[in-house]
Amino acid sequence: MNLLADTPKPPYFALILTCRVDMVHVAFEIMIDKLDDIAVHQKGFIGVEKSYGEIDTHISYWRDIESIESWLQHPTYIRAQKMGEGVWFSEYKIRIVEVKKDFSFIAKKDNTLKPKFPLIRTERGVLRVLDETQADLVYEYVNNEKTFLSPWEPKRPDSYYELEACRQRIKEIRKDFLSAQSVVFFFLDPRQTKILGYSSFSNIVRGPFQACYLGYSLAESEQGKGLMTEALKCGIDYMHKEQNVDRIMANYMPRNKASEAVLNRLKFAKEGIAKKYLKIADKWEDHILTALVLR
Question: Which domains occur in the chain, in start order?
């Protein structure tokens, strides 16, 4: 999906929704995505652009005003609007405008410029922040590794394993990256067709702390090859050099010897133990507290 709609030569029309969302923000985004899926098949539809923040903006483009008026009467659109007024919106405004002129610019590729979302090649794979078109890779990973990872993760609802949930997760990951709250790297094979594992540098705190928490997982088929250590070394290097984070904390259950071995290889130092620290597989578990200090 292109982030910017491919519009024809003017004139054409735009339906603009701007709103403040108070509650159930993810559910609102899911509904917007479903509306877009339906709008694609409506007469006169051209494309859509949207962004989420304190003010959410959704712009759909249409060939004529009659197509917009027909879309505004679609039963699903009406139902979504009523749900927004009853649950999500504190306020919203809808505008219909005619586009008489448009201008565009596409920068030439310059390998000296760093992309906004990092892509890091390691010896045996690729670390990157995924985009929505790669939601199927996340879907395959979480479902293929469900049984293997369940003893080491919080209990997940069934909806966690649905494709739409994977797509929304990627959107949240990208928003959190842009707001400097976290960096989630998925570790892919060199062709970027399969997820081998992932690492999450979350709860980034600036100011006098300059620290974050590290979490990670690796596919069952990739265990014992040193891949997690390889991926984390590159991820940690990025966090230190590019994000200026110089204290990275990682915690593991005492019985998780594989995780302990990875952290030892990366020179994380034990700092203590937290009793009943996290609820894992529906049970409160003690955790060993460790940190890598790069100051």
Answer: 12-99 (3.30.70.100), 119-293 (3.40.630.30)
